[in-house]
Amino acid sequence: MASSSSSSSCSSSSEKKITLKSSDGEALNVEKNVALEFEPAKGFLEDNSEEADDEAIVVPLPNVSAAVLSELIPYVKQRLELSAKPVQKKLIKAFDDQFTRHLSDDKLGELMLAANYLGVNYLLDVLCDVTADRIKNKSVEYVREFLGIQNDFTPEEEAELRAQCPWAFEGVDQD
Amino acid sequence: MHDMATSSLAATNTTSSGSGSISTIHPDIIETHVLSRLDASALASTSCVSSQLHSLIASNESLWTNICNSTWPSTDIPRLRHVISSFPKGPRSFFSDSFTNPDIAASSSPVNLDCPSGLISAVDIYYQHKTVLSKAVLTESFDTSPFRVDLLDPKDSVPTGVGQPVNEDLSRELGERLTLSWILIDPIGRRAMNLSSYKPVTVERRSLSTGEVHVRYGWVFNAGEKGSTTECVRCGISVTCEGSQNQSGEMHVTKVSLELEDMYGKQLSGKDSLVILRKGMAGKRGNVKGREEEGKRRNEDYREMRREKILSEVKKHQGRIDTLYMAFGALIFASLGCTPEHLIFRSFQTLNSKDQCPCKKQLSVNFDNLHVFILMIVPWITYDPENPLQVNSSYSNSVRRPSYHLSMDPPSPADTAPASSSIFTVHPDIMKTHVLTRLDASALASASCVSSQLYSLTSYETLWTNICNSAWPSTNTPRLRRVISSFPKGARSFFSDSITNPDNATPSSLNLDLPLELISAVDIYYQDRHIFGKVVKTETFEGSPFRIDLLDPQDSVPTGLNQPFNEGEGSELSDYFRLSWILIDPIGRRAMNLSSCKPVTVERWRFMTGKVRMRYACVFSTGEDEFVHCEIMVKCKGSQSGEMHVRKVRLLLEDTCEKQLSGKDGLVTLLKGMVGKRVIVRGREEEAKRRYKTHLKMSMEKMQLASELRTRQRRLVEASFVASFLLILGLFVFVGWI
């Protein structure tokens, strides 16, 4: 879905620039086709389409910080370029792997929130895959730390829960 | 749940702050007049009411000291009072320690054994709530073996104030009315526990003339690992009462002693006892309510267990003794240099003179006596009836299956400090719809232990239904889905049940009159590709032997595989052909997997038609040395086109002697297996294979043993015939002579 919309807009409006305003007030200039990938920006642009000069439009993105946006934009750009070509899925996968491999857990979380807010579904999928892979075969304590959740079970409740599924803890990796 | 608790707490707070409520009474009045009138449990629960009451009660040590002293007068001596006040929370923790009996001992002893220490026993005996005897003794040396604590000196006797009973019933009544508390205190570890069952376990009248009554109290607790000799330890307390010498007719307590026995009824040595008692103090405690009955029940269980243990050990030695018997016979035979008939006759004669057993009509009885006789003569060669385990310990250890213990260290709250902005806390929806759906079963299960919020997210039924359906496509039928959703926690418990193989069957009472049915959901895979899945329902178990056929005789299912042409391909088949047989009890709402996943044996049945027979097995124990072998047989046959077809999938049950179980027996065994313990999932293929091999070996041994026994019996009967014939002949000759 995302790729089809991007390929149509790619040729016509690749020159135009849009300004995105992040939550901490920083303004970033992006190509229009990249901006159209972001649902809130797309909606904003459609609402304000009467205005002739696109340069003048500033799209506010109050839920995303500049740091996260500056990571997102190159990814979306490259991803668009990749998917515009007659596609090799392997290439896209390799690109995704490369992008996610060095992400820290915190960064992963921030990107996920941003991808969800901006409606970039292909990125969200990739990030969720990575998150799931990072939780698999890990101890409960590790998952707790990873997700930043406080344990609110009493030891008895937890022991009971663990006793219900002893098979789940047999193949746990070292943290 | 938490919310409810807090809200009810809030409710009580608002009501108690009303005007004229009891809490407006001056705290001094409460302290001096109300609290001192409360008993221990009321005091303990009052201290949980509010922090003010808690501090009132905690600060007033004499409250608890009074309760301790009135409950156990023996604790009211300066030395013990000093020890009690050294307990972590003073007399309060002493009371809760001493009021409870040990249940399961801690796995490791918290106290260094090298440091010099003693144990204090504070004993109180009551007759109908009136204290008869209160005494505390200190045991300092544990070098003596066996371990024994004697409360009274040999010449001491304590009057009970009760007249000597004149008949059996009265002495029983006397025994029943005597209650005893034996508190064992570790002054260094500052722990205590009660070792008595309060009410007597047995009352025995020993002698009529002196009116001696023997009353036993006992407590049994788990002190060691499963399978060790100290798995269960009995603390036996025996009290002897005797009528007095001086004709007053009053009963006196003359002996009170404590001993420890292990699973074989062997008395424990001093050092061992010290370790076990300390572990017991540090371990889990039993319930206070109903402990008298519990004590009695445990004692009976212990005796039953001990009897079985000893019997099974003796049985194991039977073979060894039998060979001894043969050797002994050969020895006599050689030394006397006479005919075997003569020998048997001779040995019976010696027996008759040795023990005065009146029933000597049957030769088999004599045979048994010969057994005993040999046992008496040659125990020193190999057999030590006092300690049978020593000889055979290596054997029993190797046979015992490893039991799985869940190691669990609850995490300290410090290392789970919440991160400032985490994915989860900000947006649980992403977690639910995107991340959790990507997890596999074990990751999902461990995620559900992370927090209650995550638990409720993972309890989402379709999440688990999807996992079940992708693991076992056969479960994806409307009927089964309904059964699965009726499980206690829906698809989650179904998955947990179905992924594990049974290990131990739990004896349970089943109502067999109910219309019972079993559902088998079977899936066959080649590598990771699902070939075929089918569900069958079995409703009648009248047929014997028990068996479930998955396919109709004329059915055949194409596998999409080519017929193997040589042995190599055949064995390859075995590695990649996997099977899962889930057996579901829709009424008991349990399930289990009966397949070893990988085949245990593969046979090329016939070369021309490409018939291959694969066996999957699952062996689980149904009792001491009793196993049930669930055999799943899959027959494949090549078709005209060279494609392999599955022709037959059948489940059979066999017992330890390779006898097939009947329909009813099979059903009962399977239902018990579902309720029992499960095997760990990891490495279950290898485990199943190993068990299958052990099963084969064991059944072979059993059958050999049985056939040997039969031949021996036959020989014996023959010999006895010859002997009796000769005897009669001799008699005739003798009579003729006269």
Automatic annotation (TrEMBL), chain A:
It comes from Citrus x changshan-huyou. This is SKP1-like protein. Belongs to the SKP1 family. InterPro entries: SKP1 (IPR016897), SKP1-like (IPR001232), SKP1-like_dim_sf (IPR036296), SKP1/BTB/POZ_sf (IPR011333), Skp1_comp_dimer (IPR016072), Skp1_comp_POZ (IPR016073). Residues 16-79 form the SKP1 component POZ domain. Residues 122-168 form the SKP1 component dimerisation domain. Residues 1-13 have a biased composition (Low complexity). Part of a SCF (SKP1-cullin-F-box) protein ligase complex. GO terms for biological process: jasmonic acid mediated signaling pathway; protein ubiquitination; ubiquitin-dependent protein catabolic process. Keywords: Ubl conjugation pathway. Residues 1-22 are annotated as: Disordered. SUPFAM superfamilies: POZ domain, Skp1 dimerisation domain-like. Involved in ubiquitination and subsequent proteasomal degradation of target proteins. Together with CUL1, RBX1 and a F-box protein, it forms a SCF E3 ubiquitin ligase complex. The functional specificity of this complex depends on the type of F-box protein. In the SCF complex, it serves as an adapter that links the F-box protein to CUL1. It holds the Pfam family Skp1_POZ. Pathway: Protein modification; protein ubiquitination.
Automatic annotation (TrEMBL), chain B:
It holds the Pfam family F-box-like. Keywords: Membrane, Transmembrane, Transmembrane helix. InterPro entries: AT3G44326-like, F-box-like_dom_sf, F-box_dom. The chain crosses the membrane at residues 716-737. It comes from the Eukaryota. SUPFAM superfamilies: F-box domain. Residues 1-22 are annotated as: Disordered. Residues 25-66, 427-467 form the F-box domain. PANTHER family: F-BOX PROTEIN-RELATED, OS11G0155100 PROTEIN. This is F-box domain-containing protein. It comes from Citrus x changshan-huyou. The lineage of its organism: Eukaryota, Viridiplantae, Streptophyta, Embryophyta, Tracheophyta.
